[in-house]
Amino acid sequence: PIEALTMAASGEGKDARLETISRSIREIPNWPKEGILFQDITTTLLDPVAFGHCVDILYERYRDKGVTVVAGFEARGLIFGAPLALRLKCAFVPLRKPKKLPGETIGEEYSLEYGTDRIEMHVGHVKASDKVLLVDDLIATGGTMVAGVKLMQVRFQLSPTLSPCSMTLNDHKQVDRSGPKTGKEEGRN
Amino acid sequence: AASGEGKDARLETISRSIREIPNWPKEGILFQDITTTLLDPVAFGHCVDILYERYRDKGVTVVAGFEARGLIFGAPLALRLKCAFVPLRKPKKLPGETIGEEYSLEYGTDRIEMHVGHVKASDKVLLVDDLIATGGTMVAGVKLMQKVGAQVVEAACILELPLLKGKDKLGPYNVPLYTMVHKDVL
């Protein structure tokens, strides 16, 4: 089973750090298109206290879980995943768009509103014996995250994969998704 | 390895962790792949430790990392230095108001951007990327910071390809370059 962990709904009591993190996020209306209230974490990154809390909380949660690989989704998942991998003293594997990785790759396609996209990693960098933590800044529809899970799990028959994200839109932000949708779903994966 | 800081054994560990991929993205290029460095928390840790030791007392207020591999080295460093982290991104990636700088490619141009207001004139900025080759991207970063009046303390990369003269390209901008590993390839 996959555990999608959301920090504020994690039942770990009123961790004041979560409020600091939440308040640090800037909301940008109608980006990338009408009706989307984009959750901008670059303001979180400006604040080493808030950014630090993100990594600290993840570190505290996973330090004793035997994680051997942190895999972060290009690009914002790299920002949260890389410091975490260093803290956990485990491998960091970037999950990238096509044509970015120079070596032999293995990938997984996923659907967008119109068309498909693909995430890839280098062959051999995740092995069947690995225990993987998937990291991204945000989970919305879950398309990207599921592609990551399939890449790790379906191809390698790995044991359960843990997938933390810094934010979960559905639980914490009353974002209206009923508006008209046109074009590519940037930020909606 | 040519850092002049004595024989720091960590530099050799870092150098050996890099995988070379011939003829990528095209014939004649020996691509320096740092994803193998990232697999090794000792080697990856050395990269951040060495940068942290170098900059901890330099009054850096912003670490700016170039999408995408500069994010991987810059973000942990910013956390260690307890300063702001600013991602420098390709066009159409940042949701807010942006300011950018164009730079030349072999064919055409590209552009890096940051969010307006995230770097101020009072900031002392460290620019971070995994590698410097011709220096085009790095100079664009320098110009972008200088455009908002900020001081660039240094440009820092894990790898340098001296044959491509990136250091010379930075020269006119009065920004020193620090790199850990040199590879005499194109």
Could you explain how this protein is built, in words?
- Two copies of one chain form a homodimer.
- Chain A is α/β, with parallel strands linked by helices and 189 residues long.
- Chain A is 32% helix and 26% strand.
- Chain A has six helices and nine strands, in the order E-H-E-E-H-H-E-H-E-E-E-E-H-E-H.
- In chain A, the strands form three sheets. The first copy, chain A, has a five-stranded parallel β-sheet, with helices on both faces. A two-stranded antiparallel ribbon of chain A has the order 2-3.
- In chain A, helix 5 links the parallel strand 8 and strand 9.
- Chain A starts with a strand and ends in a 17-residue tail after the last helix.
- Residues 168-189 of chain A have low confidence and may be disordered.
